[in-house]
Amino acid sequence: MGSPIPVFFCAGLRPEAKGLCPAVPAMAVELTKKFSLLPPGATRRAASEENGLYLGLGGTFRRCFLDPAWIALAFLSHRVMPSPLKFGFHDFLNAQPLLVPLEKTAREAGFEIVKDVPARLADRLHAGELDLAMIPSIEYLSHTDRYRLVPGACIASRGAVDTVLLVMRGGVESVRTVALDERSRTSATLLRILFEDVFPPEVQYSRTHPDLAHMMRTCDAALVIGDQGFSARANNEGWTVIDLSQRWWEQTGCAFVHAVVAVRREVKLTPEGLEVIADAPAQGRAAMDAIVGDQVEKTGLEESVVRDYLENKILYTLGEEEVAGLTLFRDLCFQKNILNVRPELEWASL
Ligand SMILES: C=C(O[C@@H]1C=C(C(=O)O)C=C[C@H]1O)C(=O)O
Protein backbone atom coordinates (compact mmCIF):
# COMPACT_ATOMS: atom_id res chain seq x y z
CA MET A 1 0.00 0.00 0.00
CA GLY A 2 2.70 2.49 1.00
CA SER A 3 2.52 6.24 1.29
CA PRO A 4 -0.70 7.17 -0.56
CA ILE A 5 -2.84 5.85 2.28
CA PRO A 6 -2.47 8.74 4.72
CA VAL A 7 -3.92 11.09 2.18
CA PHE A 8 -7.02 9.00 1.74
CA PHE A 9 -7.27 8.71 5.48
CA CYS A 10 -7.04 12.46 6.00
CA ALA A 11 -9.74 13.03 3.50
CA GLY A 12 -11.93 10.21 4.63
CA LEU A 13 -12.09 10.83 8.33
CA ARG A 14 -12.73 14.51 8.22
CA PRO A 15 -16.46 15.11 8.40
CA GLU A 16 -16.24 18.09 6.07
CA ALA A 17 -14.62 15.92 3.40
CA LYS A 18 -17.47 13.43 3.20
CA GLY A 19 -19.92 13.48 0.30
CA LEU A 20 -19.78 16.05 -2.44
CA CYS A 21 -18.23 18.64 -0.22
CA PRO A 22 -17.06 22.08 -1.26
CA ALA A 23 -13.33 22.76 -1.05
CA VAL A 24 -12.15 23.48 2.48
CA PRO A 25 -9.02 25.59 2.02
CA ALA A 26 -7.22 24.58 5.23
CA MET A 27 -7.70 20.95 4.48
CA ALA A 28 -6.56 21.40 0.90
CA VAL A 29 -3.33 22.87 2.20
CA GLU A 30 -2.77 19.98 4.57
CA LEU A 31 -3.43 17.41 1.88
CA THR A 32 -1.32 19.18 -0.68
CA LYS A 33 1.58 19.04 1.76
CA LYS A 34 1.07 15.32 2.14
CA PHE A 35 1.13 14.89 -1.61
CA SER A 36 4.84 15.41 -1.67
CA LEU A 37 5.03 11.92 -0.13
CA LEU A 38 2.90 10.26 -2.79
CA PRO A 39 4.38 8.10 -5.50
CA PRO A 40 3.53 9.23 -9.05
CA GLY A 41 0.16 7.90 -10.19
CA ALA A 42 -1.42 7.84 -6.74
CA THR A 43 -3.32 11.05 -7.31
CA ARG A 44 -4.52 9.80 -10.68
CA ARG A 45 -5.70 6.58 -9.09
CA ALA A 46 -7.50 8.51 -6.40
CA ALA A 47 -9.18 10.78 -8.88
CA SER A 48 -10.36 7.98 -11.16
CA GLU A 49 -12.26 6.03 -8.45
CA GLU A 50 -16.03 6.27 -8.33
CA ASN A 51 -18.37 6.50 -5.45
CA GLY A 52 -16.37 7.77 -2.54
CA LEU A 53 -15.05 10.59 -0.51
CA TYR A 54 -13.30 13.71 -1.68
CA LEU A 55 -9.65 14.35 -1.62
CA GLY A 56 -7.89 17.70 -1.64
CA LEU A 57 -5.52 18.21 -4.51
CA GLY A 58 -3.81 21.51 -5.20
CA GLY A 59 -6.69 23.54 -3.75
CA THR A 60 -9.48 21.57 -5.46
CA PHE A 61 -11.21 18.36 -4.42
CA ARG A 62 -11.45 15.17 -6.40
CA ARG A 63 -13.55 12.14 -5.78
CA CYS A 64 -11.86 9.03 -4.44
CA PHE A 65 -12.78 5.63 -3.14
CA LEU A 66 -11.96 4.59 0.39
CA ASP A 67 -11.85 0.93 1.33
CA PRO A 68 -12.37 0.30 5.09
CA ALA A 69 -9.26 -1.87 5.21
CA TRP A 70 -7.25 1.06 3.94
CA ILE A 71 -8.57 3.20 6.75
CA ALA A 72 -7.01 0.94 9.35
CA LEU A 73 -3.71 0.79 7.51
CA ALA A 74 -3.88 4.48 6.81
CA PHE A 75 -4.48 5.20 10.45
CA LEU A 76 -1.26 3.41 11.40
CA SER A 77 0.91 4.80 8.62
CA HIS A 78 -0.47 8.29 9.05
CA ARG A 79 0.60 8.30 12.67
CA VAL A 80 4.16 7.31 11.90
CA MET A 81 4.72 9.26 8.73
CA PRO A 82 6.48 12.59 9.32
CA SER A 83 6.66 15.43 6.77
CA PRO A 84 9.76 15.18 4.59
CA LEU A 85 12.90 16.83 5.92
CA LYS A 86 14.30 19.55 3.67
CA PHE A 87 17.77 18.40 2.68
CA GLY A 88 19.91 21.06 0.96
CA PHE A 89 22.54 20.03 -1.56
CA HIS A 90 24.71 21.87 -4.05
CA ASP A 91 24.51 20.91 -7.68
CA PHE A 92 28.18 21.21 -8.75
CA LEU A 93 29.77 18.46 -10.80
CA ASN A 94 31.58 17.27 -7.65
CA ALA A 95 28.28 16.64 -5.85
CA GLN A 96 26.71 14.37 -8.48
CA PRO A 97 28.00 11.01 -7.16
CA LEU A 98 26.21 11.76 -3.88
CA LEU A 99 23.29 13.72 -5.26
CA VAL A 100 22.23 11.18 -7.90
CA PRO A 101 21.74 8.28 -5.43
CA LEU A 102 20.25 10.58 -2.80
CA GLU A 103 17.68 11.93 -5.24
CA LYS A 104 16.62 8.35 -5.99
CA THR A 105 16.14 7.38 -2.36
CA ALA A 106 15.10 10.76 -0.94
CA ARG A 107 11.36 10.23 -0.88
CA GLU A 108 11.33 6.91 0.87
CA ALA A 109 13.97 8.09 3.33
CA GLY A 110 11.74 11.06 4.14
CA PHE A 111 13.85 13.77 2.46
CA GLU A 112 12.99 16.47 0.01
CA ILE A 113 16.13 17.62 -1.83
CA VAL A 114 16.56 21.40 -2.15
CA LYS A 115 19.34 22.65 -4.43
CA ASP A 116 21.34 25.83 -4.01
CA VAL A 117 24.97 26.98 -3.98
CA PRO A 118 27.05 26.07 -0.88
CA ALA A 119 27.10 29.52 0.78
CA ARG A 120 23.34 29.95 0.35
CA LEU A 121 22.69 26.45 1.70
CA ALA A 122 24.64 27.43 4.81
CA ASP A 123 22.55 30.57 5.25
CA ARG A 124 19.30 28.70 4.67
CA LEU A 125 20.22 25.97 7.17
CA HIS A 126 21.13 28.65 9.69
CA ALA A 127 17.78 30.37 9.13
CA GLY A 128 15.96 27.06 9.81
CA GLU A 129 14.62 26.95 6.27
CA LEU A 130 16.41 23.64 5.73
CA ASP A 131 16.59 20.72 8.18
CA LEU A 132 19.93 19.37 7.03
CA ALA A 133 22.33 20.27 4.24
CA MET A 134 25.69 19.66 2.63
CA ILE A 135 27.36 22.88 3.75
CA PRO A 136 30.91 24.28 3.61
CA SER A 137 32.87 22.59 6.43
CA ILE A 138 33.78 25.96 7.98
CA GLU A 139 30.04 26.64 8.41
CA TYR A 140 29.64 23.43 10.39
CA LEU A 141 32.72 24.29 12.50
CA SER A 142 31.41 27.80 13.14
CA HIS A 143 28.01 26.58 14.36
CA THR A 144 28.61 23.32 16.22
CA ASP A 145 26.27 24.66 18.92
CA ARG A 146 23.42 24.50 16.40
CA TYR A 147 24.36 21.53 14.18
CA ARG A 148 25.51 17.95 14.38
CA LEU A 149 27.75 16.28 11.84
CA VAL A 150 26.07 13.55 9.78
CA PRO A 151 28.34 10.51 9.39
CA GLY A 152 29.34 8.89 6.11
CA ALA A 153 29.32 11.41 3.29
CA CYS A 154 31.34 14.53 2.50
CA ILE A 155 33.17 16.35 -0.28
CA ALA A 156 36.90 15.98 0.38
CA SER A 157 40.20 15.67 -1.48
CA ARG A 158 43.72 14.52 -0.85
CA GLY A 159 46.12 16.54 -2.97
CA ALA A 160 45.16 18.44 -6.12
CA VAL A 161 41.40 18.80 -6.54
CA ASP A 162 41.46 20.90 -9.76
CA THR A 163 38.50 23.12 -8.82
CA VAL A 164 39.55 25.14 -5.77
CA LEU A 165 41.90 27.61 -7.37
CA LEU A 166 43.70 30.80 -6.54
CA VAL A 167 44.34 32.61 -9.81
CA MET A 168 46.86 35.49 -9.78
CA ARG A 169 48.00 37.96 -12.38
CA GLY A 170 51.47 38.22 -10.87
CA GLY A 171 53.32 36.79 -7.89
CA VAL A 172 51.87 36.54 -4.37
CA GLU A 173 53.88 39.56 -3.19
CA SER A 174 52.03 41.86 -5.62
CA VAL A 175 48.48 40.82 -4.60
CA ARG A 176 46.56 43.77 -3.11
CA THR A 177 42.99 42.75 -3.99
CA VAL A 178 41.39 39.30 -4.09
CA ALA A 179 37.95 38.53 -5.54
CA LEU A 180 36.35 35.61 -3.68
CA ASP A 181 33.76 33.37 -5.31
CA GLU A 182 30.60 34.33 -3.41
CA ARG A 183 29.41 30.69 -3.37
CA SER A 184 32.37 29.63 -1.22
CA ARG A 185 32.93 29.75 2.52
CA THR A 186 35.43 26.95 3.17
CA SER A 187 37.87 27.78 0.37
CA ALA A 188 37.75 31.47 1.26
CA THR A 189 38.83 30.44 4.77
CA LEU A 190 41.44 28.01 3.47
CA LEU A 191 42.89 30.84 1.40
CA ARG A 192 43.33 32.90 4.56
CA ILE A 193 45.01 30.01 6.35
CA LEU A 194 47.42 29.29 3.52
CA PHE A 195 48.13 32.81 2.27
CA GLU A 196 47.51 35.33 5.06
CA ASP A 197 51.18 35.37 5.97
CA VAL A 198 52.30 35.35 2.35
CA PHE A 199 50.13 38.14 0.87
CA PRO A 200 51.09 41.73 1.70
CA PRO A 201 49.36 42.79 4.96
CA GLU A 202 47.14 45.40 3.27
CA VAL A 203 45.41 42.86 1.00
CA GLN A 204 41.66 43.47 0.56
CA TYR A 205 39.05 40.77 -0.10
CA SER A 206 35.66 41.15 -1.81
CA ARG A 207 32.95 38.59 -2.55
CA THR A 208 31.82 38.51 -6.15
CA HIS A 209 29.94 36.55 -8.76
CA PRO A 210 32.20 33.73 -10.02
CA ASP A 211 33.03 35.19 -13.41
CA LEU A 212 36.79 34.75 -13.65
CA ALA A 213 37.36 37.24 -16.48
CA HIS A 214 35.51 39.94 -14.52
CA MET A 215 37.24 39.00 -11.26
CA MET A 216 40.65 39.29 -12.90
CA ARG A 217 39.76 42.63 -14.52
CA THR A 218 38.81 44.12 -11.16
CA CYS A 219 41.29 42.41 -8.80
CA ASP A 220 44.88 41.15 -8.72
CA ALA A 221 43.76 37.63 -7.80
CA ALA A 222 40.63 35.50 -7.69
CA LEU A 223 39.44 32.46 -5.79
CA VAL A 224 37.15 30.20 -7.80
CA ILE A 225 35.49 26.94 -6.80
CA GLY A 226 33.34 24.34 -8.50
CA ASP A 227 32.89 23.83 -12.22
CA GLN A 228 34.33 27.28 -13.01
CA GLY A 229 37.68 25.85 -11.95
CA PHE A 230 37.90 23.85 -15.18
CA SER A 231 37.58 26.94 -17.35
CA ALA A 232 40.12 28.80 -15.19
CA ARG A 233 42.84 26.53 -16.48
CA ALA A 234 41.52 26.43 -20.05
CA ASN A 235 41.12 30.23 -20.39
CA ASN A 236 44.34 31.06 -18.63
CA GLU A 237 45.76 34.35 -19.90
CA GLY A 238 49.22 33.70 -18.51
CA TRP A 239 47.92 33.75 -14.95
CA THR A 240 49.46 31.76 -12.10
CA VAL A 241 47.04 29.09 -10.87
CA ILE A 242 47.43 27.49 -7.44
CA ASP A 243 45.36 24.50 -6.39
CA LEU A 244 44.54 25.14 -2.71
CA SER A 245 43.90 21.52 -1.88
CA GLN A 246 47.29 20.58 -3.33
CA ARG A 247 48.90 23.35 -1.23
CA TRP A 248 47.08 22.13 1.89
CA TRP A 249 48.27 18.57 1.19
CA GLU A 250 51.89 19.70 0.72
CA GLN A 251 51.85 21.68 3.95
CA THR A 252 49.92 19.28 6.18
CA GLY A 253 49.93 15.81 4.59
CA CYS A 254 46.21 15.69 5.39
CA ALA A 255 42.99 15.27 3.46
CA PHE A 256 40.96 18.44 3.13
CA VAL A 257 37.22 18.39 3.81
CA HIS A 258 35.45 21.00 1.70
CA ALA A 259 31.86 20.27 2.70
CA VAL A 260 29.97 18.10 5.19
CA VAL A 261 26.37 17.17 5.87
CA ALA A 262 25.13 19.00 8.96
CA VAL A 263 21.75 18.59 10.61
CA ARG A 264 20.10 21.10 12.93
CA ARG A 265 20.26 19.80 16.50
CA GLU A 266 16.51 19.86 16.97
CA VAL A 267 15.92 17.70 13.88
CA LYS A 268 15.72 13.96 14.45
CA LEU A 269 17.03 11.77 11.65
CA THR A 270 15.49 8.35 11.11
CA PRO A 271 17.60 5.16 10.75
CA GLU A 272 16.64 5.10 7.04
CA GLY A 273 17.71 8.72 6.64
CA LEU A 274 21.10 8.12 8.25
CA GLU A 275 21.54 4.96 6.22
CA VAL A 276 20.87 6.49 2.79
CA ILE A 277 23.38 9.28 3.52
CA ALA A 278 26.06 6.87 4.74
CA ASP A 279 25.38 4.62 1.77
CA ALA A 280 25.42 7.40 -0.85
CA PRO A 281 29.21 7.24 -1.58
CA ALA A 282 28.99 3.49 -2.39
CA GLN A 283 25.84 3.99 -4.44
CA GLY A 284 27.53 6.81 -6.33
CA ARG A 285 30.54 4.63 -7.09
CA ALA A 286 28.28 1.86 -8.37
CA ALA A 287 26.50 4.29 -10.71
CA MET A 288 29.69 6.10 -11.80
CA ASP A 289 29.62 5.19 -15.50
CA ALA A 290 26.12 6.59 -15.96
CA ILE A 291 26.95 9.69 -13.87
CA VAL A 292 30.11 10.37 -15.90
CA GLY A 293 28.16 9.94 -19.17
CA ASP A 294 25.43 12.37 -18.09
CA GLN A 295 27.92 14.93 -16.82
CA VAL A 296 30.05 14.81 -19.98
CA GLU A 297 26.90 15.68 -21.91
CA LYS A 298 25.85 18.38 -19.46
CA THR A 299 29.21 20.12 -19.00
CA GLY A 300 30.88 19.56 -22.39
CA LEU A 301 34.07 18.52 -20.57
CA GLU A 302 36.25 15.63 -21.79
CA GLU A 303 35.20 12.24 -20.46
CA SER A 304 38.68 11.59 -19.06
CA VAL A 305 38.55 14.89 -17.13
CA VAL A 306 35.13 14.20 -15.62
CA ARG A 307 36.04 10.62 -14.74
CA ASP A 308 39.35 11.55 -13.17
CA TYR A 309 37.70 14.33 -11.19
CA LEU A 310 34.83 12.23 -9.86
CA GLU A 311 36.73 8.97 -9.39
CA ASN A 312 40.12 10.19 -8.18
CA LYS A 313 40.08 13.85 -7.16
CA ILE A 314 36.92 14.09 -5.07
CA LEU A 315 36.53 11.80 -2.05
CA TYR A 316 33.03 11.16 -0.82
CA THR A 317 33.43 9.11 2.35
CA LEU A 318 33.90 10.90 5.63
CA GLY A 319 36.41 8.39 6.99
CA GLU A 320 39.11 8.63 9.63
CA GLU A 321 41.60 10.51 7.43
CA GLU A 322 38.98 13.05 6.44
CA VAL A 323 38.00 13.56 10.08
CA ALA A 324 41.71 14.10 10.91
CA GLY A 325 41.90 16.72 8.11
CA LEU A 326 38.74 18.42 9.36
CA THR A 327 40.10 18.46 12.90
CA LEU A 328 43.37 20.04 11.76
CA PHE A 329 41.44 22.65 9.74
CA ARG A 330 39.43 23.42 12.90
CA ASP A 331 42.62 23.80 14.97
CA LEU A 332 44.22 26.14 12.43
CA CYS A 333 41.03 28.20 12.21
CA PHE A 334 41.11 28.50 16.00
CA GLN A 335 44.80 29.50 16.01
CA LYS A 336 44.09 32.20 13.43
CA ASN A 337 41.06 33.50 15.35
CA ILE A 338 38.71 32.51 12.57
CA LEU A 339 36.93 30.36 15.15
CA ASN A 340 36.67 31.74 18.66
CA VAL A 341 36.26 28.31 20.22
CA ARG A 342 37.82 24.95 19.38
CA PRO A 343 34.62 22.92 19.04
CA GLU A 344 34.24 19.16 19.52
CA LEU A 345 32.81 17.39 16.50
CA GLU A 346 29.45 15.97 17.58
CA TRP A 347 27.79 13.31 15.47
CA ALA A 348 24.16 12.92 14.57
CA SER A 349 22.86 9.60 15.78
CA LEU A 350 19.49 7.99 16.36
C1 LIG B 1 36.02 20.91 -4.08
C2 LIG B 1 35.13 21.86 -4.02
O1 LIG B 1 34.55 22.06 -2.82
C3 LIG B 1 33.48 22.96 -2.59
C4 LIG B 1 33.94 24.10 -1.82
C5 LIG B 1 33.07 24.77 -0.99
C6 LIG B 1 33.49 26.06 -0.30
O2 LIG B 1 34.54 26.59 -0.64
O3 LIG B 1 32.75 26.57 0.55
C7 LIG B 1 31.79 24.26 -0.75
C8 LIG B 1 31.40 23.07 -1.29
C9 LIG B 1 32.35 22.19 -1.96
O4 LIG B 1 31.77 21.42 -2.98
C10 LIG B 1 34.75 22.65 -5.21
O5 LIG B 1 33.66 23.16 -5.29
O6 LIG B 1 35.53 22.73 -6.15
UniProtKB/TrEMBL annotation:
Role description: Catalyzes the dehydration of chorismate into 3-[(1-carboxyvinyl)oxy]benzoate, a step in the biosynthesis of menaquinone (MK, vitamin K2).
Question: What protein name applies here?
Answer: Chorismate dehydratase
Reaction catalysis annotation: chorismate = 3-[(1-carboxyvinyl)-oxy]benzoate + H2O
Its EC number is 4.2.1.151
What pathway is this protein said to act in by its record? Answer: Quinol/quinone metabolism; menaquinone biosynthesis
**Listed GO MF terms:** hydro-lyase activity
List the Pfam families hit by this protein, alphabetically: VitK2_biosynth (PF02621)
Name of the encoding gene:
mqnA
